[in-house]
Task: structure prediction
Amino acid sequence: MIFLRAYKTELDLNNKQRTSLTKHAGTARYAYNWGLARKIEEFKAGRKMPTAIDLHRELNALKKTDFPWMYEVSKCAPQESLRNLDKAFSNFFRRVKEKKAYKFSGKVGFPKFKSKKRGLGSFRLTGTIRIAPINAVVLGAMRSTTPSTSLSPQRIKLPRLGWLRLKESGYLPDRRFFTSDNQTDGIKILSATVSEHAGHWFVSLQVEQEIEVEKAQGEPCGVDLGIKSLAVCSDGREIENPKALRKSLKKLRRAQRELSRRKKGGKKREKSRRKVAKLHYRIANIRKDAIHKATSSIVAKNKPQEQRPSVVVIEDLSVENLLKNHNLARAISDVGFGEFRRQLTYKTMWNGVSLLVADRFFPSSKLCSACGAINDKLTLSMREWTCGCGARHDRDRNAAQNLSRLVPIKSE
Ligand SMILES: [Zn+2]
Result:
């Protein structure tokens, strides 16, 4: 099976490279804002909005006179940025349509101008992208038929930016696998997105990869995304939220209070702002790491196929659904459920596990897993309850049990 997947890893840069990357991100942001302004201008004049292709042509014509600094960066940066803008508009129009048809009730979100205040941003490059071990002097000599397992430091070659070192080794599919341009045995690099977060630079490779999948054959597993713990499985496992999270959240709240007291435009405010951004970054990392561990353990990727669950069942926790209950929405955004579902979606696919999403009206918590009665009096704050039949339930465990039973039974 061919999958689209992304590999994201941190770059290890010198100052010159940092400057160049900052210029690329700046150009991408500039092109996006310029294109957005142009689209609005044409729209207001009652004309058809220019597409990314129109805008890129227009931008190229203006480059010499108006934006000579754009010659310092890859032409991909503004071009891909204008493509993103087109995508932002098509998403916007789709949501408007859905809203009219009562299929969507959130904010439709007209595309916004990008501000430097929200970080340096990102840019995408296409073209020849290579990955190689750092000490490969003669690249041609590195071509070997057997994939290397050594963890020598790696570097990546991007159009216009040249070779950049990577902090982590052995994570990206290596040059030693490559047979021709952007092509390895079963791996094709489509593009690279470079982005900055709180002073760190990352590269994310979008690749098409062929993965052999063996169908999992173990017992179905219901997963309830808990509020108290990260997740509860129907096999009795409970995956805790990391302890470091609570500590960092506490620190964040303190830092946010401090920031709100600082005078606008002051030096101390800037310092506080940086501190808050750093904490957000750390928290996001802790969360993502915990979710990675949880989703990997749920699909049991290192176990033989008889022990991996054939089906994983989760609830439909669409954002819209959640917003109906303010408290739940808060708690859930705190544990990153969108990310949980995203990871589970691809990890189940790669490991031959089916993913079943329960209907949004399925009363997973209210249903008694022993007798099937529905407890309409169950509120969110009730962590435990006793059914009329006498069964005593832990809220999350009961929900996980109910979810695991949603799997259609195979006819003999
Ligand atoms: Zn019961």
Remarks:
- The longest strand covers residues 2-12.
- The first helix runs from residue 15 to 44.
- DSSP finds nine helices and 16 strands in the chain.
- The pocket of zinc ion is lined by residues 368, 370-371, 373, 387, 389, 391 (CB under 6 Å).
